[in-house]
Write a structure and sequence with these properties.
This protein has helices spanning 57-70, 121-135, and strands spanning 10-17, 19-27, 30-35, 50-53, 78-80, 90-98, 101-108. The chain has 138 residues and is of the alpha+beta class. Helix 1 packs antiparallel against helix 2 (121-135).
Length: 138
């Protein structure tokens, strides 16, 4: 276990729609980050989509503050939309353990906090926090 309180004990997130779009995983001492927002380009054309490295302490602190503001720790364990499937084929999972907080949740064609069939503003803000942390890797 690490002695730096800003580091997670566990961090594993992915968002997929046919292909991986965003992937972030903590395997001490690094984050493995993949962001392929250009779905029409072969993801293997170059390796600029994939990063391995370490965010600075301030980037971690901002990430945790953002997650606290979004109240992700209270998200349900599963989100499945039962109506029309506007985002059919979208799947995601999130598993974080940080200090005394844990969130383990998944979604299929649905997004928190209200089991919507398209990404909510809160889910989009969460994605932006993940992207910001991933882009901070040095």
């Amino acid at each position: 276990m690490n002695n730096k309180l800003y580091l997670p004990q566990k961090l594993d997130f992915s968002f997929n729609r046919l292909n991986p779009i965003i992937y972030l995983k903590w395997i001490e001492p690094n984050i493995y980050y993949f962001n392929n927002c250009s779905l029409f380009k072969n993801i293997f054309d170059n390796d600029s989509h994939f990063k391995i490295g370490r965010p600075a302490e301030i980037d971690w602190v901002e990430f945790w503050q953002h997650l606290d503001r979004l109240n992700i720790w209270d998200w349900d364990s599963e989100y499945n939309y039962r109506g029309l499937r506007f985002y059919e084929g979208s799947n995601w999972h999130l598993y974080i353990v940080h200090q005394n907080k844990t969130i383990k949740t998944v979604g299929s064609n649905s997004f928190p906090p209200g089991a919507l069939n398209q990404p909510s503003e809160i889910f989009i803000e969460f994605l932006n926090a993940v992207i910001k942390l991933g882009n901070s890797i040095t």
